[in-house]
Structures are given as C-alpha cells and as structure tokens.
Write a structure and sequence with these properties.
single chain; 3-stranded antiparallel sheet; two-stranded parallel sheet; 69% helix; 3% strand; globular
Length: 546
C-alpha cells in the first residue's frame, strides 16, 4: 500500500479525534448531554448519524459482495430495508421523540419502557438492558474484527494491531465526547460513505464504456442458485414461484428489524424538535436511497470490471459465467480496456473475497490518495456502528444498572464518569472476544438484528400506538420475540426457510395483544401520558420548545 493512501487514512483518524475533542468541550456536563446530546441534535446530523450507524460495513462490503456473487436477486434486502427505514421515520420517530421527553425525560430505551408502563418492579428495564448489553457487546466485537481484517488485507498490518487501531480511535472520541461526538463523527462518516458510494460505481461504469454496454454485458451472465442457472440480472431468487415468493418475503423482512434497533431509534429521541423529524426523514431517506443504489451498482459494475479485465479470482469465490447470448449483445472483451493506475497497479491483482470488490476497485482504478479516502469510507461505516453500540451499551450500564441498583443519588458528574468507564469496559470485552477472528461467538452476531427486531420492535411500535397496552403485555412480547428467534435458529434450524425475524415479530405481536387484553388495564397516569403524547402530535410542537 502506497504512503499516499496511509496519509489519507491518517488524516481521517485525526479528523475523528478533533471532532471528539470539540464534543468533549461542548456537551458532557450532565448525563443527558453525554447520552443524548441534550436533545439538541440538528436534523441533518441526526439523519446521517442514524444512517451511518445503521449500515456498518455491510453497505460497502456485504451488499456489493452479495450482488457480485449472486446477482440482482440480492437487491430485495436493500428494498426491504428502504421500506422499513421509511416506516421507522414515519411511525416511530415523532411519537418516540415526544413520549420519551414527557415520560420524565427517558434517556435510554429500557428507561422509556419502564416509564411508559410505570413498571415499579423494574422487570422491563432489566430484561431490555441485559439484552442490549449482551448483544451490543457481540455486535461491537464483530465491528472490531472487520476493522482488524481491513487493516490486515489492505495494509498488510498484523490483525491484532488493526483491532487496537480501530477500537482505540473509536473509544477515544466516544469516551470523551459522548453522544454529540458519536453523532457528529457519524455525520462526517455518513458524508464520506455517500461520496464513496457515488464515486466508485460511477467511475467504474464510465471506465467500462457507460451504463448501457455494462448492463448489456452483464445480461450475458448466469449464476448458480442451488443447481438452478438463473440470469444474473433476474430479480427472481428461486426457480419455483412459491419458493421465490417465500425468499423475497424473507429477504425483505429485514426491514422489520428497524423498529427495534436501539442505536438507530435513539437518534429520534435526540433530534431537537418535533418539526425537525420530517426534515430528518427526508434527508435520511435520500441518503439511504443513493447509498444503497451505489452499493448495488458497485457489486454489479465490479463483476463487469473483473470479467472485462480478466482479473484472477481466488478459489472458492463464486462468480457468474457467460451463457449463450444474443449475437448483438456487448461482450466483456468489447468493454473499454482500463489502464489500472491505482494503488495496486504495479503488482498482480487478485480478488480474494467477493466482499472485497469495493476495496479492489478503489485500489486498482483510483489514485492512491483517493484509494486511501475510499478505504476510510469502509472504516467510517465500521466505526460509526461501533461507536453507536458502545454508547447505547454504556447508557444501559450507567442509567439502567449503576444509577438504579448501586447509586441512586449519584451526581450528574459521577454518572458521566461511569458512562465513560462503561465505554472503556465494553470495548475491552469486545476486543477480547475479537482477538480470535475465527471465534464462533461471532456467528451469533448475524442473528442479533433479528433478535432486537423481534424482541423490541413490536413492543416499541404497539406501545406508541395502543393506549391499552400493559406492562405484562410488554414483558410477554419481549420474551416471546427473543425466544422465538432463538428457537427458530437453534432448535428448529429453519433460518434457511424463512428469516427468523418473521416468526419472532409475529409471535411477539400476538403475545402483546393477547396478554394486554386479559390483564388489568393500565393505571390512569400511564394513559394520561399517552393522551398527552397524542395531543402534542396533533398540535405539531413540543410545549415550550418550538
């Protein structure tokens, strides 16, 4: 790797640390400021922060790799996520912003559950906090692993050194700057991801001679799906229409997970006003549409590039093959020959993993300075998610355990200190778990989205829309959703048939409705909060805020 790319990456690290220092000076005087930025987040910052913390390395590596290997049928997951994100902004954001403030200024999701249902037993708070801490520690560990592997693959550094570099920078700005640092760095990282996911596919397609010839050449390819040869550009994932329908529903159901992701919906709690929620939605959905489209085009254009340039592909990397095509179709040999003047132009280029197609394109096509910037985009995606998960875990440890069970009279300054120490503690556990990159504990992480979505999603949604939902209904829904997801994966082994969030979400919803209807109605002050929330929504502004 050229020194120019290292300089670009070093500048990115310096910028992240500078933002952390700025946030440290601005917002860490009390626990609300440290955990929620004082509920004064600009809508542009809130929206890009939510998007960047959501997408992680999946946006720049996972999705392009899936499109590269399996074709356009993998785009259904992106469509499902777009729909889920839109309804999350529409249904959850405005109500959660109002409810968490009027319900005695709830700072965390477990705090909101407790205050929403007046759960004096603290059962809801403890269950949800335990789920958050365990799963987000695993999530954080997976992000650190991604950072370590990126440094190892791109710079030839030792994997463990990559772990500490990735975690060290994230921990520094999160520990000192809190929520404001995380949100501001996420905003910058979201901008970097946006530029990268426009630049890479557009330049690659231009190098190949344009959009028309590239698509024409891709239409001559087929991929093997369980023994069935399908067109690369086909959106149908299975030969049987019945199985294809189940596959599409299963893939699109990823969108259901949004309603229960604490690190995403906490941004709704922090935006500065109710009117800003609509602005946040428009910016967030525009950002997501363009970046998701860019990720899909990166995978497809990357395949065309690899085919046209006869780039070696490592054994085990799935790649489409040319089928019998119309005589007038563009062939890959007819696509423009590319002068590879990028960072790796002086050596052999090999695609070792389909999920590194973005890295390959950035290092082969672009100047080393730009290649370094594009690698920073991948780090931005990884680090934005790690920082958000660290802060949510820290919030739960501070607000839902330390303050409630250990030091009820703790001062604001003490709670901020505990929050910072919690960030450090969670990160150290995550690094320890990540020390072995092949540790099977990371297999659990692939199911955490479904776990959060099924355990928290129905509880969040129904609690915001149904006045008669009860505390026992919330507990039943949370437990049923989590247990169903785990049983679907490990007991029945049905993940290959239907994504586990579907049965988990349905079962949790039924449990909430049934248990709430057969248990005692909520207390009057609980329903009073609900009525106050709906009244504020009708007026369109928070009292004394707008």
């Amino acid at each position: 790797m050229d020194i120019e790319a290292l300089i670009s990456l070093a500048l990115y690290f310096v910028l992240m640390m500078a933002i952390g220092l700025y946030a440290y000076r601005k917002s860490t005087d009390d626990v609300s400021g440290y955990m929620l930025g004082g509920r004064q987040l600009n809508p542009a910052v809130a929206s890009l922060s939510a998007g960047a913390s959501d997408m992680s390395g999946w946006m720049l590596m996972g999705l392009p790799g899936a499109i590269f290997a399996t074709g356009m049928s993998e785009a259904w997951i992106a469509i499902g996520l777009m729909i889920g994100a839109y309804f999350n902004y529409r249904l959850v954001a405005p109500r959660l912003r109002v409810y968490t403030e009027i319900a005695d200024d709830a700072i965390t999701i477990p705090d909101f559950f407790e205050k929403r249902f007046a759960d004096h037993s603290r059962t809801l708070r403890v269950i949800s906090a335990v789920v958050i801490i365990i799963f987000f520690t695993l999530y954080t560990s997976a992000g650190v692993v991604s950072g370590g592997k990126l440094f190892e693959a791109s710079f030839g550094l030792d994997y463990r050194l990559g772990l500490f570099l990735t975690a060290g920078v994230v921990v520094a700005y999160t520990l000192f700057g809190g929520f404001l640092a995380v949100s501001l760095t996420d905003f910058v990282q979201g901008c970097i991801m946006f530029v990268a996911l426009v630049l890479v596919p557009v330049v690659t397609i231009m190098q190949l001679g344009g959009f028309g010839p590239t698509v024409d050449a891709l239409s001559t390819l087929s991929v093997d799906v369980g023994g069935w040869e399908k067109s690369y550009l086909s959106m149908i994932p299975q030969e049987s229409l019945g199985l294809a329908a189940i596959g599409i529903i299963s893939t699109m159901s990823w969108g259901l997970g949004y309603f229960g992701q604490p690190h995403i919906i906490v941004r709704f709690m922090a935006v500065r006003s109710l009117k800003d929620v609509a602005v946040m939605r428009r910016i967030g959905m525009s950002w997501m549409l363009i970046t998701v489209l860019g990720a899909v085009l990166t995978g497809a254009a990357g395949l065309a590039y690899v085919k046209s340039q006869n780039i070696d592909v490592a054994d085990g990397v799935p790649i489409a093959r040319v089928i019998e095509a119309p005589t007038d179709a563009t062939t890959f040999s007819e696509l423009d020959n590319i002068d590879t003047t990028g960072a790796f132009s002086d050596g052999d280029v090999v695609l070792g993993d389909q999920e590194t197609i973005f890295i390959l394109l950035s290092q082969v096509i672009f100047h080393p300075y730009i290649a370094g910037f594009l690698l920073a985009a991948i780090l931005a995606a990884i680090m934005s998610t790690i920082s958000s998960q660290l802060l949510v875990s820290s919030s739960s440890l501070t607000e839902d355990f330390y303050k409630i069970f250990l030091r009820r009279g703790a001062s604001q300054k003490e709670l901020v200190l505990v929050g910072r120490l919690s960030v450090l503690a969670v990160s150290l556990v995550a690094i320890a778990l990540a020390f072995d990159p092949d540790s099977n504990i990371l297999n659990l992480v692939s199911n955490a989205w479904a776990g959060f979505g099924a355990a928290f999603g129905p509880v969040v949604l129904i609690s915001l829309f149904w006045r008669g939902m009860t505390k026992l209904g919330a507990i039943a829904g949370m437990v049923t959703g989590a247990v169903t997801v785990l049983a679907w994966i490990y007991l029945f082994n049905l993940s290959g048939v239907m994504y586990e969030i579907v049965p988990g979400f349905i079962a949790a919803t039924i449990a909430i409705l049934v248990v709430s209807m057969v248990t005692k109605d909520p207390e009057s002050h609980v329903t009073d909060y609900f009525d106050e929330m709906t009244g504020i929504l009708k007026k369109g502004e928070l009292p004394g805020k707008e």
